[in-house]
Amino acid sequence: MSSSQDLTSARWVKSSYSNGDGGDCVEWAPARVATSAVVPVRDSKYPAGPVLLLCPVAFSVFVRAIGEGVIPQ
Q1: 26 and 43 in contact (C-beta within 8 Å)?
Q2: 18 CB contacts (<8 Å, ≥6 apart)?
Q3: pLDDT band at 10 (very low <50, low <70, confident <90, very high)
Q4: Which of 23, 31, 33, 38 is most buried, with most CB under 10 Å away?
């Protein structure tokens, strides 16, 4: 899998796990999953910053861990 992708046209969606006080802001680009089999994830406070490219299984585990409180919100 390539470690770089052109994400300039990606449509980012803020996670429902993000809080409204400016912290813990996670965004993902769901349309990329169908076209590249990876889930781009970034910190919405730093949109020009680094992007994690997770396989769908790793993304699912990540989301579940947040929901279960394994990863603090």
Answers
A1: yes
A2: 24, 25, 26, 27, 44
A3: confident
A4: 38
